[in-house]
User: Fold these one by one.
Assistant:
Number 1:
Amino acid sequence: MLYRETGQFKTTYTSDSQVFPILQDKIGLIAMLLIAFLVVPVFGSEFFVKTVMTPFLIFTLATIGLNILVGYTGQLSLGTGAFMGVGAYSCYKLATYFPETNLVLLILLSGFFSAGIGVIFGLPSLRIKGFYLAVATLAAQFFLEWCFIRIKWLYNDNTSGAINSLPREAFGYQISGGAADYIAQYIVVLCIVVMMTWVASNLIRGRIGRSWMMIRDMDIAAELMGVRPLYAKLSAFAVSSFYAGVAGAMMVFLYYGSAEPEIFDINHSFLFLFMAIIGGLGSLIGCYMGAAFIWIMPIILRELPEIIGLDINPATVEHIIFMMIGGLIIFFLIVEPHGLARLWQIAKEKLRTWPFPYT
Amino acid sequence: MLYNIFVDPFAQMLGAPDFLMQVLWEGFVAGTLYGLIALGFVLIFKASGVFNFAQGIMVVFSALTLVGLYQAGVPAWAALVLTIGAMFVLAWLVERIVLRNLVNQEEIILFMATIGLNYFLIGFGEYVFGGEPKKMIASELGLPTGSTTFEPFGGVLIIEHLDVAAVVVAVALVTGLAIFFNKTRIGRALRAVADDHQAAMSVGISLNQIWVIVWFAAGIVALATGIMWGAKSDVSFALQIVALKALPVLIIGGFTSIPGAILGGLIIGFGEKLFEIYWGGLLGSGVEGWFAYVIALIFLLFRPQGLFGEKIIERI
């Protein structure tokens, strides 16, 4: 009843091809942004902002990166974790060499390093695809992980082998290191994620994004129509790794505070693949939904026994969470292989005609 | 530097041939075990086109079931039979609940479903059997222990009896499966399904039945792998990372070839051990972790279909 476009007339081509053609969607988006920018920092508890929202946004960004590669370009990648690691380690080195520079700038810069590495490991995609490509990206995953452990220069030769987030400032606020304010960290993460989502949505609607989708749908036809696979595939790898790198740098500096090579391992790569697939391949809103589902659901499940007063061993809860995630993945794939984004779309279609679907 | 790469390792090999033989033997054993894991992948991939990510956890799960049953007081032989039964139930459930509902979906969806299965089995296995590493009941199952020492070229070569048993089991499984695939009625049906699902169905082959059989066969291979690997180290969930090694093995051997899986495993096993021992020092240790993938990458560039694979891969 409330959600319908009756009376909203499109008079120009531009207005017809907007991202959100329906007024209610725009209002909804603005409301979401207001909640994220104002309500959450002001009313959210420390636990909620620090442990739920910040990582959720960072993981969303990594998922967007992966989705650009898997969902929009059709190149299966299992190396997201390692590309995030490249971003994190290069940000660490940059922060060591340029202590006075604004950290936000360094985080964005470190994305270029992982983009470079991503292009190198994307080269095999010009010859192979599917599971074969997945193995090539697995090589990247294990090789880079090994580099993070073995190359001492990367972590400034410290004895623990881990990288700590150095105390650095941005815009006059300290946003990393032990004394950082979690609200400031959240705002920085939110700004970067919102901005990069906006960039991604425009990239995808533009020429380069359409060439990615052509490669995904049928590479030979795309080539015949003048899309160069070399540029299309490598640019997808570059953009995807850029997003992953920025997410990795933020994960270490704005969320974990310190990181060992293990947090960039294969399990994290799989985690992001889950988020992308559960959310919906080839959908940006799906990245948010997938990340929320995979990240926030276990947190709720962990808290649930306490809330309803059951006394369950924490280890048992962990096992049950594993089982539930596995079961839910299978369940969602059976019910809707195109992910939560598709369910959301169906729901919107239903809402538009509700309550008179047959008129 | 060049000396260290091209001359020194070979000088070391010739200088201590007994040590080289020891390294080669270890590579051989590791290779057969990789090959066994890859075999499970190949079986399922051949018959259903599903890339079964859960094979690694099936190895762990079957081994845990066996040990868990034994610890619960079931005699070893009965535990073995019961575990085989459990693998059958697992195969049946997977077919019934997962595969049947996902017929005709894209590869990646099926792949994701097996990752979901993987997660489920990890949680379930830890819930039932606990997360701590367990000892495999090797001697109770009649596997030999101890070792024989040879003295070739005036050095020492130690061969564990268990490793010999592992190789024998691998050879027996491959021969058995090859005969099963080529000579029996069900084997022919399996190959028909692998070639073309629709054509197979149109001549009256039940896809569902075939899938159960294939997953059951993969489960038995997983059990054999689990017993052997568990006897060498412990039975723990860390084993499932080893299972990822099956991917490069498959790339080298070809996704659809049973002998290819074993040969690929051997190449990876030999290559990894030799490189780690003789060249690893140059890079710092731990190269075993990624070396297999790099070999696979090189193979992909020159022979994308693998050694024995069918040439179906599209280029571009």
Number 2:
Amino acid sequence: MLRERTRNLSNVDLNFLGTALVIAAIGCMLIYSATYFSDPSLSFVRRQLLWMAIGIALMLVFLVIDYHVLFDVAPILYGIGLALLVYLAIFGRQTAHMKGWIHIGGSQFQPSEFTKVFTALMLAKFFDSNERAYLSLRSFIQVMLIIGAPVTLILLQPDFGTAASFFPLLAVAMFFGGIRWRVWVVMILVALLVAGLGWGVMKSYQKERILTFLDSNRDPLGKGYQVTQAKIAIGSGGIHGKGFRNGTQGKLGFIPARHTDFIFSVLGEEWGFIGVMIVLGLYLFLIVQALTFAKHARDRGGTFLVICLISFFIFHVLINVSMQIGVLPTTGIPLPLLSYGGSSTMMFLIAIGLMLNVDMRRFVNE
Amino acid sequence: MRVYRDDQKFLSFRINAVLWGIVAVFLFLAGSFWFVQGVQADKYRGLSEANALREIVMPAKRGLVLDRTGQKILADNQPAYTLTLDRTVMRPLVKGDPQHREKLIAFLAAVLGVTPQEVEARFEKGKLIPFARPMPLAEDLTMTQVASVQAQAVAFPELNVEPVQRRNYPYGTMAAHVLGFIGEVNEKDLGVHKDLRQGDLIGKRAVELMYDEYLRGRDGAQYWEYDSHGRRLAEYRPARKEPVAGDNVYLTIDFELQRRAEQYFIENEFVGSAVALDPRNGEVLAMVSSPVFNPNVYSKRFTPEVWKVISSNPFKVELNRAIQGLYSPGSVFKVVMAMAGLSDHAIDTATTFHCAGSGVFFGRRFRCWRRQGHGDVGVSTAIKVSCDIFFYNTGARLGVDKISEYARNLTFGEISKIDLDGEKAGLVPSTKWANEKQHRKWYPSETISVSIGQGPLIVTPLQVANMMAAIANGGTVYRPHVLKMIEKVGPKGEVNRYQVASEVLHKVPNLSDRALQTVKAGLWKVVNEEGGTGGNSRITGLNVAGKTGTVQVVAQHGWVKAEGMPFRERDHAWFASYAPGAPGDVPKMVVVVFVEHGGHGGADAAPLAKLLYESKFRGQVQNANFDLSNPETLQAIKEGEAPVPGQKPKAPPVPAGTGH
């Protein structure tokens, strides 16, 4: 048993793990550069390092336990995740009109981030036992319920950004699960019906929040301003960048949320086009590696688990990087492992652990 | 070796499709970044240099300071204009035109009416302020100055006229020592208050300092976009932080009492102090220190010359004599002596000593203030006529350490913990003090001097008031305080009021009820019986009780009339009292008056006490001829021209029928 485990651990893909850790390390440097001026006590960097340490510990836990065992307990984890969301929907403290944070002692964490991983596990478990290339209507509804439950609870908070970040799971289920055209039609009709009913009962500020979410031009001096400033930061970085700690746009506080959602603008300004290409390259390498894991996974469950998890990475990276230069509207979606934030850093590290988990157990004769 | 799966082909195909799709998107993103960072880099670099979001501080409105009723505002804020310089705008202009700086300085010197050197000095001083923040150059601009600056806005776009709220004390010198003043932060303040920045204003003295945390509020900020020419474009609203106004502070000060007491000092050109306390809770009803200063002068930034004038005043204008002036208590200390003697059984109510005008103690002759002596006197008569011989005997029996113990219990030798800064503790001598602090032996003859409140013993007027309050209320020492209430006004106008609870510091130990009754009876006689030294404070229908005191400033040989002496050598005058003070009364107010070089306690200090009691208990005072309701006088005081001792005040017209 012990020998088996050591042999397994020797199968960990160090390139993949290394890439993830290098991205996280770059993230810490950028957070430092973005905040040292306004926060000389470096509390952001310290907290980020602490979360990374906790995240790496969690990653190891989710790496060592065989993912089949995790499939067995997936309903329990998923249940816990939903219970936390229910708790929040009912008792959550209002943080900026949003109940998404649970306060533990002095710090806060966002259960919805962990629920993402648990939902991915639940979905992978479902596909593990559903071997058909195309989903039946019944199976499709089951999949919708698995994804829909946490999304509904998050919408109750209401946190549209986080709810939207469950979208990749839906895409995975539909694209890789396989859906026939009849189901597509049914789904679109249901979606329209729900949207119409929802719009009717929503309060005006909720509507406004959705519209702003969809179109940042509605709030030109708000998010539009943010993008303008981010674009100026990135553009002024040029090819070589202004150098570590030398960015002015970020430092002088022109870019709100520069250490979280707009950390990439700090990269663009200080490290230039070269830095941008390096980090994009690291992400691409991570994604290509993960898709290779998915192809070579031992079973259908493993394949789906990796695809679900990497889909979060793909979604976050593409949306976030695109919004930096105004290709897509601004949303509150952080960059995996690069942006400041405890829950999201931990969630992505756990995902890295799970993907390695699937990869190192790809050989059948254990 | 892998398990063959049916779906393998299906999944592999779709995974590959996703893979290539992602590679394509990444290539597209790389191209986009190349466009922004490679092709358009220069454009954005230019924007980055010019594009600036500048913070404009929205100063919080400082809280009001009000009297105890809330009807009189003692400190408020007045709209004023401050001239500031934006160095981020100035820099490119100086680069473009080497003469720009000179022109600017010449312009400023002309508009402000100062020398170019003074303008340079202000530039230099402003260097401490962060570069991106506006640097104040002048305050309280006149409308003409505002117009001149605005007329030259094109030539000097770096100059801004900012509307500000300037601290204003509507009654000028009124209660100045209690209110204190504000001023620019110094390095020490910045070390203590992390939220403050160079150039901010902060309370510097007294209530403005002690309750600065409440009064100050929190500054807000606006963020404005500027173009490369330094023109304001638009405000970046989401970042806006609204200022939070400071809380209002209600003082325990009774406006009428304070006004009358100050007027008394101004009118008589007295230097000194008066304190009125509520003996039931320690509230300070009035606190006067004369001469006065005008805090409006301090709340301006660019007035170093005023500082020089004030600090060179020989009367130490800034000193709050009520808590910082240290004086011998003189005969007022006989109250403590009587309490100590009776409580410690060194004497009793039947004890009499013979006063023949002088007596020999420990080999030295000590005089009574009354050359012909008082004859045989008991304790209450001794208090009434302030017989020195009686208390010399009492002191000789007690010894200095017993005296010291009772004096400390009755609030001397320690700060009273009043909520004002810079309070002095005074000194109560003892043999231990002589040994440890003076490295000498205590001479028994010194005890005799201390017995009548002379010698090394020094006290503040507030301590005397506190002692009288403890006698008046039967032995409770309250913490004296000037804060009555904090009023927080929320953003939607909701008002929360927080009253200050009275705080008992200690109960005076070993205080016999009999001693208390005897001393109180003596204090009543001082004022209300023929032959008492405090007859000048007598009010028909109100039983004032008190003790006079006269302190020798220069050792005198023989008996000299005060009027014939130079001012600096004249005696200090004390009157410490409370009312109503007949047996069985609950005293409601303690008044202590101290006049430096005043001559006699009974003649110079007691009349003010009378004035204050009349004001408090009857609401009508006959002998007030310096009326603050007279607009002319009020204006004079507002402008800082309040009469100072040694300089005759402008005689205000006396309202008919109030002369005396």
Number 3:
Amino acid sequence: MEQSHTVYSTKTKCIRLVLMIFLIAVAMLIIYPIVYIILGSFKENSELLLGGTRLLPRKFVLDNYVQAWRKANFARYTINSLFLSSGVMLLTIFSTSMAGYVFARKNFRFKELLYSLFVAFMFVNVGSVTLRPLFELAVKVKMNTSLLSVVFISAGMGQATYIFLVRGFINSLPKELDEAAKIDGCTFFQVFYKVIFPLLKPIIATIGLLSFRTGWNEYIMPLVFTMSNDKMRPLTVGVVMLRNSGDGTAAWNIMFAGAAISVIPIVLLYMFTSKYFMSGMTAGAVKG
Amino acid sequence: MSTWKEKIKHANSRGDFAAALMLLPSVVLLAVTSIYPFFWLFRYVCYDYNGFIAYYTGTHNFTRMLSDTTFWKSVLHTFEYAGLKLIFILPLSLLLAVLLNQKLRGSSIFRGIYFLPTVISASIYSLIFSFIFAVFNGPLNIALQNLGWISKPVDWLGDVNVVMFAVVIVAVWGGLGNYMILFISGLTSISEEVYESSRIDGANGIQTFFNVTLPMLSPVLKVILMLAITSAFKDYESIMVLTGGGPNNRSHVMFSYIYKLIFSSTSTPQIGYATVLSIVAALIIGVITAVYLFLARKLDDVI
């Protein structure tokens, strides 16, 4: 703060100005595609097909959204996306908060071995081929007609990072908390449920947001699982499918509206919670 | 019998059963979604499996792989893609992180903007970029033509000479914020006093960066580099949406090619062959990671 009173030389001022221009230029390049799609979704299809560098619509129409919502099934896709992302979020919070607690506070044989198993499988990546056995498994237990199978897989593949986050957070809580509760007659689970879980709020918020985002943005997996079932598709798959379908080239306006429907909610969520997103990103990566 | 009963009672009072039950959801999820598919991979290595019937074909999958030029080209493309992405994304994100660490006006707003792409689905932003790259009505070509930089429209996603650059542009746009945030968290751990003393010694900004910031950052840098390398080799979602591997397989990376072998709607699935390629792809990434770790350690000894 004291520095702001220093008188800078013209040279420093010039450098600062150049840097500022550079930062603003990069920021504009980053924002451009998002502004382009959101403003574009209010343009008429004829204007979109003509193209051009003009960002603002010549004539402001809402019809693209109406069409996408009614004719192109986007109401269904949106509900599916919401189901998928909240499912992943809830399942992730439920499973990793308990597992993180056990890993932090309980000593048992093979604990570190089990933990490293979680971490190891986070690094093993063999690509989309693993979706084949999972799809066959889902068919076997008759879960291939429900997005629930995608929820399970998406949550299952993210376990390690989140357990790691919860474990680290609980390690920073004083052990006396647990002991006091135990003396008051709490069982192991009650200590977690009544004492620890309420204290986990900040880390649960991070995990909830990150896993919600994972579910909302999932593409390849729901694509594979909804290959033959249009009614199950989330937004990501639905919008991209529209382009690959026959009338794709003519339906730019519907694709713009669809992409905007997918982008706007998560961007709004991010605007109010960016701190949690960023802190989750760094905590999950750098400590490892 | 009584000792056994007592043991159970004792374990119960310690919360052993509760702990096991609480671990169960995570362990089941790990077992079903990660461990099971991994071992399943090895089941069809010697088979021709189309999803319904599996024929034993011995070593045919391996000999086929050796002569499969599309696959080996996709391996090359993976290296090309990863190399290009890293060359652009790492210096740029480090530069942004260093600048934003200077407490400039509005730096938290800039940070928020740069991180924004990471919350958007790769499939959706790739779709948006395919509109921007569109040959005749995409804003990129029109803007470049208005500026007079190109005389006729560039087919960004359909020209074998430029498609890789187009794909990398999208990857850099989407991943920049991630690495910037990681670098910033590394930079904030460097204490103010170090900068102070280098300022007293009369170092300018660039000297400070190379002699103070970079060496102090090196432990974090190593972790970030490893993350960047492994994830660059694994990317394929964005490519699937942008080009589907085309034109003429020019933008196929290993995992997009494997995806096509298993899930393509236009040809019979070749799952047995794809499992062999997947294992090879995973091994290639493993070797890259090992080589990187080895080099990073060697560098440590030198510096």
